Q: What sequence folds into this?
């Protein structure tokens, strides 16, 4: 098994950088949740976050008999050919995973920059 550097995780999934020959490959992030894996650049990760926010804005579960358990919401991914059918609960967990990953990457980049000075 290849080595990894974990970035962020929650009960739904995990995000990490792959390591190759003891070097951390920071150009892309491996995001794994719900038997699905995406290998995304930072730009694609931000696009995914925007897509998640757009889907959250469109959701309205008020008065629905399934209350957050249906899979009627289509979440666009940064890969134009792939959309995911998700429930509201899944969407919120994916949102946490992606936002937590972005936060941790930005925090590490900031601290690395500050520590160089």
A:
């Amino acid at each position: 098994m290849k080595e990894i550097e974990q970035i962020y995780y929650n009960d739904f999934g995990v995000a990490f950088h792959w390591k190759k020959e003891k070097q951390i490959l920071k150009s892309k992030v491996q995001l794994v949740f719900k038997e699905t894996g995406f290998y995304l650049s930072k730009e694609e990760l931000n696009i995914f976050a925007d897509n998640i926010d757009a889907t959250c804005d469109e959701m309205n579960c008020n008065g629905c008999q399934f209350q957050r358990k249906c899979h009627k919401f289509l979440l666009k991914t940064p890969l134009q050919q792939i959309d995911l059918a998700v429930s509201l609960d899944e969407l919120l967990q994916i949102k946490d995973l992606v936002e937590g990953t972005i936060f941790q990457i930005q925090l590490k980049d900031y601290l690395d920059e500050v520590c160089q000075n």
Summary: The chain has one domain: 4-116. Residues 66 and 93 are 18 Å apart (CA to CA).
